[in-house]
Amino acid sequence: MNNTPTPLKNILEAILLASREPLSPKQMAAVFPDDEQPTTADIGKALEELAQECAGRAVKLNRVASGWRYQVRESMAPWVAKLWQERPQRYSRALLETLALIAYRQPITRGDIEEVRGVSVSSNIIRTLQEREWIRVVGHRDVPGKPALFGTTKAFLDYFDLSSLDDLPTLAEIADLESIEPELALEPAMDARPSAEQAPTSTG
Amino acid sequence: MNNTPTPLKNILEAILLASREPLSPKQMAAVFPDDEQPTTADIGKALEELAQECAGRAVKLNRVASGWRYQVRESMAPWVAKLWQERPQRYSRALLETLALIAYRQPITRGDIEEVRGVSVSSNIIRTLQEREWIRVVGHRDVPGKPALFGTTKAFLDYFDLSSLDDLPTLAEIADLESIEPELALEPAMDARPSAEQAPTSTG
Amino acid sequence: MESASNTNTSQDEGPTTDDRQSPDLVLPQDRQHDGRQAEMPFAVVQGQPFTQLPRDLYIPPDALEVFLEAFEGPLDLLLYLIRRQNLDILEIPIAEITKQYMTYVEMLRELQFDLAAEYLVMAAILAEIKSRMLLPRQPSDDEDEGDPRAELVRRLQEYERFKQAAADLGELPRESRDYFLTEVHFEHTQVVRVSPEVDLNDMLSALRDVLSRAELFSHHIIQREQLSVRERMSHIIDRLRDTPWIEFPELFSAEEGRSGVVVAFLALMELTREQLVDLVQHEPLGQIYIKRPGSKLPI
């Protein structure tokens, strides 16, 4: 019989290729018996080797928000997309604008979103985003009616191939109405509190 | 721009890794434009190379009745099997709604379900319900695209311990249930523009 | 002072924004066929681009619908009007823009188009700003009120940021469009894949939610419907997969008794109503056939 122990690298490759979801190092360790669990450092080293072995291949080992996954490179899309008759789902501008507001301004209420967009947000959009598990209710604002506060999820980041909110494209800066005051330091992107980002609307 | 043509081998690796089902050489050729179709011989050669590259790895390229597929080597079973054992799963609300609509409104198409639900139904949900053998395709509606009509199965009745669908509460009873215990906090927020979103109640 | 000139703009405006837009986004520009950016049409209806606000009131009603759908709301429409003329948001010629905006809104109202309330609210805001702009301004007023356009400018800028952010988001790589997940086959020999348990009540409460959302409860027909009828409908359709037609009596069986006959009959009626089957009878008192729609009888 073959008594050579199976290399950690091979085991990780097997579980990563078989899984449809990204796997965190903790989940990877969990497939080993309690007394044989590899350390995080060992896992990290093996993942690095696996990533290098993808050079020149159609797949890459990628790190996204909820863990590691193999994914078929974007350059392969022209051929791979042909496999399925169904076209990938398209999302409306209304949905993407709502999602962008939730991503950049979280936690945010539906009312806040409507204020920026100037139109009401349909329940279908919120429901679609919740069903895709891209957004979730993270709390409720302590005002009358206790409106739900929405935030994005790891699944949102995974879907858009991001490993954290910091990887989102930078939010455009606002040109000041009173362009005489250029010293305003606007947050480029990730501030969750609206107050910090808003351009002043009157002369101070 | 990079003008090197993508090697056939890479394209085949990509589609084989992305596909859930084995692919026949004919299916592989079909992802290429008509005037760029590789010959069966070329495909055979590329597959052979890919198979050789699996040496020492956790996966192998295997030929089965309906075509070729990558599969995890049997020796990896002890670890890979753990992946599925650990998953504590729950079905999503979307899945339960879809199942309920199929039970109560069968025979019903996916489009009908989407109309009532107001959001699209993911292919995953339909696939999960079919894999569980709770729903099946009973026919096709005679309209363009010939959408499948779904109905529930005997296995569905068995699981819920019903001798026939009539053992389920009627819609009227379910409606009464609602008036007894009004659930206020279900939706994060209700419609702002009902007219634009409601599914037409065209069933009458 | 308020300009009375026509809102007509020159034909050869250059590109007005450098928005990078995902092919996914349904923006007015996307409707252009040849991809040129010369001037953004409002909409393309049957191949005809609408590049200007129509001067007379007649545009085909289906054009209006596309026109309205091209915008995400009044802020989006205003941004379009401003950008289309290469104007700086910070220097909106409020009278001009208000005039254009009103033309559009009036046109829609004239045709009794179902206009979202937000468009009318914006019309009121614009009118208010315009009137404030017309008032003589004392230097000291600036301290209190500032530019009457300030709030609108802030909103437009803020909306534009997120409009851009949405376009950027649309360009990020997406699963199953740009990149693809791998799923390598694994033979589940000893492993039983554990399926989640479902409680019947959970399913019923899900149904209650979806039906109240769709307001289907108000529908008395559905409320009275027997579920065994639905079940039977599926069975009949299923039988018609293997055979193009069934003779009427084949649907009924003696063992089912009276109630079974009623269920089969109701199922047949409902299938006919929903046009899932056709009933055919060639001569009075002749045999009735149930067939798939579109299929032919052998006789």
Please explain how this structure is put together.
- The complex is a heterotrimer, with two copies of chain A (204 residues) and one copy of chain C (299 residues).
- Chain A is an alpha+beta fold.
- Chain A has helices at residues 8-18, 25-29, 40-53, 77-80, 93-105, 110-117, 123-131, 154-159, 194-197; strands at residues 59-64, 67-72, 108-109, 135-140, 148-152.
- In chain A, the strands form two sheets. In chain A, strands 3-5-4 form a three-stranded antiparallel sheet.
- In chain A, a hairpin with a 7-residue loop joins β4 (135-140) and β5.
- Chain C has 299 residues and is mainly α.
- Helix content of chain C is 45%, strand content 6%.
- In chain C, strands 4-6-5 form a three-stranded antiparallel sheet, with no helix packed on it.
- In chain C, a hairpin with a 2-residue loop joins β1 and β2 (48-50).
- Chain C is elongated.
- Chains in contact: A-B, A-C, B-C.
- Chains B and C meet through α1, β2, α4, α5 and β5 of B and β3, α7, α8 and α9 of C.
